[in-house]
Give the backbone structure.
Amino acid sequence: MNCRFFPLVLLLALVTACGGNDAVQPPPSNPDRFLFERGAEALKQRKWLNAREYFRQVVDNYPNSPLRADAKLGIGDSYLGEDSAESLVLADSEYREFLTFYPTHPRADYAQFKLAMSHFEQMRGADRDQTETIEALEEFQVFFNRFPKSPLMPEVREKWRVARDRLSQHHLNVALTYFRMRDSDGRPWCRGVVPRLQEVLKEDPEFSRRDSVYFYLAECFAQSDNTKGEAIPYYERLLKEFVESEHLERAKERLQALRQGAQAPKTQ
């Protein structure tokens, strides 16, 4: 027997053992396709380990198979689907290897998207470390740069928006922590607020919670006689861009007071 078919025979025996009394079938004329289709079916059924074993047989034993690249992606997909801390790291490795060996493959855009998703799935809450969020955003940006015409673009943009919102929310949370602090005069510690929130608007002008960014920037500027005028545009942007916001009523009050030349009420 050709030694290349030995792993296939073992897998066929395993399939038969798991499937009941069906007789062991001889090796098919296209064993790489047989293995690949078995792997695809196992992947569909969320049998991650089984899928991985079938795909790995194609990758390891059929170097000239036209299905080898897709099998490599299948291995990555099995790790991504498993969704554990260890498997997501392994998924990253598989997709990176694919892009190294098949940079011009028709499914390179898919590999890049899934590489980004291997970090996306590891993102933590906005109050915690954002290393994986930043990694995901960097890989999404590679996708945007390399595959601007990919049919995957709408889905990628949707996931990018989630990741970008997570990072911007993290910066907003830090800024609010500083805002709640008080200096010797009882005012918010705006030196820790303003640069962070201005950076959010610069880096993420479509942040879904930019109403809060506008409001707290305006609140900080309104605290000082030297910057009261800088508060007005932020209140105005909040009222113009948002029909629903927890800050609307207070923004209207502050803006009216500033326009009348009165001191804006202090935040409670």
Remarks:
- The chain is about 65% helix and 0% strand.
